[in-house]
Amino acid sequence: MSEEVVADVVVAGGGTAGCVVAGRLSDAFPDLKIVIIENGPESKDNPVIDQPFAGVFQVWTQPETIKYYKALPNEHLGGAESIVPTGNVLGGGTCVNWLGYQNAAKSDFNDWNTPGWSFDELRPVIDRSIRYQADDPKGIHGKDGAMPVSYGGFTTKLGEDVREAFKGTGVPHLEDMADFVTGHGYGRSVKWIGKDGYRSTAARHYIYNKPRPNPTILSRKTVSKVLIEDGVAVGVEICDAPSKRGDIEIKNVQTIKARRQVVVSAGALSTPCILERSGAGNPEILSKMGVEAKVDLPGVGKEYQDHQSIVEGYKIKDLDGLDAFAKRDPEAVEKAQEQWKKDGTGVLSTTVLDYFFKLRPTDAEIKSMGPEFAEMWSKVGQNYPDKPLVTGALGLMYFGDYKTVDPGHYMTICHWLNYPGSRGSIHISSTNPHVQPAFDTGMLSHPGDLEAHKWAYKLLRGVARRLPSYLGEEATRHPRFPPGSAAAVAAVDTPKTLEDTVEYSEEDEKALEAFIKMIIKTTWHSMATCPMKPKDEGGVVDPHLNVYGVKNLKLADLSICPKNVGSNTASVALIIGEKCAEILTEDLRRAGGEM
Predict the structure, then answer these.
(1) Do 86 and 555 form a contact (C-beta atoms < 8 A)?
(2) Is the dihedral of CA 513, 519, 522, 523 positive or negative?
(3) Contact 88, 82 (CB under 8 A)
(4) Angle in degrees, CA 244, 249, 253, rounded to 5
(5) Residues 234-271: pLDDT tens digits?
(6) Cα(268)–Cα(350) distance, rounded to whole angstroms?
(7) Ramachandran area for residue 39 (φ above 0: left; ψ -120 to 50: alpha; else beta)
(8) Could you give the 3-state DSSP secondary structure of residue 67?
(9) Are the beta carbons of 207 and 215 closer than 8 angstroms?
(10) Taking Cα atoms as reference points, which of 40, 85, 41 lies closest to residue 59?
(11) So which residues are the catalytic ones?
């Protein structure tokens, strides 16, 4: 490739939304010269990605398909430095996530309070993104869109146990966990898996799905900055992505010119850093880094949000779960591979998360969580029955290293907080794109978040103890309650009844708080670092995704979310990509007619 490449449209970032933008533009303009730049490798014909269950282990094996951001020490977590992974492969998070299909609440989009982005206005966009292949008696979901979702080709025997455990809790069973309007219940999980048994990825279904004259894919290339001349984005500067972790040497700097549009779609952690290196951001921060401030945008990188998660482990009877494959038992792995290659079924055609739940607290529970939580929840969700305070899943596997736990069978419950009051930030610490940014997750900086996690832990611990298959708790995944406490973890246990509840003393509460601070993690749902809202309110992009103060520059990823959403975020990233493609298609046709 020459030193300078010229394209019509440059998509800087080949994640979920970036693939949607590039693919839809390719459909609309076959002769348009499109370049999509991805920091990681391509994802075509990669069995670890294609096989759903195999792919969930990527976060632990540290392949090049995942990029890890190390956060600054967090005083609210005892100085812990959180690690936040992101997709680093063409297709982004859809290639590495845990495949749970969820939808944001209808009110989530309406709360964005942005013209063109209400739920009703987005509904055609949503339907274009989804090819629903599961039961849909109410006809809620799109059937002819791009990304297949189904129950997968294997279902564990967890269902009957889950129904029994939730009896009497007031949490209803739901036939559809992704209906946009229900914020409280539990039910079987639909997954980002097609009926063919393959993982559904944005690259597979928007880029690789048919022969295309465009886009040109530049993989393993890092976007250093957008080139802004006289207030116009004219291209990007790129270099080779690091060949190994920790390598910060800049190699093979090149320019990719854009005649018509630059779309930055590098994700909620990379996009604000690209903008700052380009001279768009808070002038004080840019000045400290020696970057000329070309656009005064103090909202860049300022309002980082995530869904903070807690994971608990439980011992259970064998339910034909996924332990053998998770332990990499050679016989189990070989059997699973043969079955998947034969017809796309078996354990490789599923994920560990068979059942999901969405939970809202009662008025009495809200009061018990204290005034700071009550004030926080009243602003974001109390009056919206479609908004769950927490979402989570139950899976027949131990989420961790089996060598560290006793032999046996395990189930894990994971929950995350959908609308945390905590806020963080991310800013460049160098003009070198390979240097880790100054990243503050802000986890638990709002006291209401801790109270919400305590409530969820107690409720879900009670559910687990009522599973007919329950055999006890895995001690390292639970608090270290004081000796003699009624809440103490029992090494061997038996299923409980609804009346057999745990009373938590003041000392138990302290132990629970310490546990949450120690074990809390990201849910990979980073967002809101370049929000779509008025500039004087800290906004970075307008309703057409244009960066304020720069012509021919749009953003299209989860960084533009002005507020959080009550769901996994893959579906939202697809919506943003589809909406950007729709807007940009109209822009290009207005500017130059059909191409």
Answers:
(1) no
(2) negative
(3) no
(4) 110
(5) 999 999 999 999 999 999 999 999 999 999 999 999 99
(6) 28
(7) alpha
(8) strand
(9) yes
(10) 85
(11) 525
Per-residue pLDDT reduced to its tens digit, 311-333: 999 999 988 768 889 888 999 99
As given in the structure block, the two tokens for residue 84 are 């936040």
> CA-CA distance, 359 to 471, in Å (whole number)?
25
Task: Label residue 593 by pLDDT band (50, 70, 90).
Answer: low
Q: What is the dihedral of CA 112, 116, 117, 123, to 10 degrees?
A: 150
For helices 506-519 and 447-465, angle between their N-to-C axes, nearest 10 degrees: 100
What's the one-letter identity of residue 344? G
**Mean pLDDT value across residues 377-385:** 98
* Distance separating alpha carbons of residues 402 and 574, to the nearest angstrom: 35
Q: Check residue 3 and give its pLDDT.
A: 66
Crossing angle of helices 158-166/447-465, nearest 10°? 110
- Tokens read off for 373: 């939580």
Strands (E), 168-316: 185-188, 216-219, 221-229, 232-240, 254-264, 280-281, 295-296, 309-316
Residue 583 CA, chain-centre distance (Å), reads: 24
Helix (H, G, I), strand (E, B) or coil at 447: helix
Contact 568, 100 (CB under 8 A): yes
CA-based nearest residue to 319, from 399, 393, 400, 410: 410
Nearest to 523 by CA among 404, 399, 392: 392
Residue 1 has pLDDT above 70, yes or no: no
Question: Residue ranges for the binding site for FAD?
Answer: 89, 223, 524-525
Residues 6+ apart with CB under 8 A from 79: 73
How far, CA to CA in Å, does 378 sit from each of 153, 387, 562, 573? 41, 12, 18, 27
> Is the Cβ–Cβ distance between 428 and 453 less than 8 Å?
no
Token code pair at residue 454: 């305590």
Q: b vs e for 221-248, b when ≥16 Cβ sit within 10 Å of the residue's Cβ? A: bbbbbbbbeeeebbbbbbbbbbeeeeee
CA geometry: angle at 57 spanning 54 and 58, to 5°?
Answer: 105
**Region of 247 on the Ramachandran plot (φ > 0 left; ψ -120 to 50 alpha; else beta):** beta
100 secondary structure, DSSP code: B
What dihedral do alpha carbons 249, 251, 257, 263 form, nearest 10°? -40
With CA atoms as reference, report the closest residue to 89 among 146, 34, 49, 148: 49
CA atoms within 13 A on the CB side of 51: 21
pTM: 0.97
Could you list the residues known to form a binding site, using ranges: 89, 223, 524-525
Radius of gyration over every alpha carbon of the chain, rounded to an integer in angstroms: 23
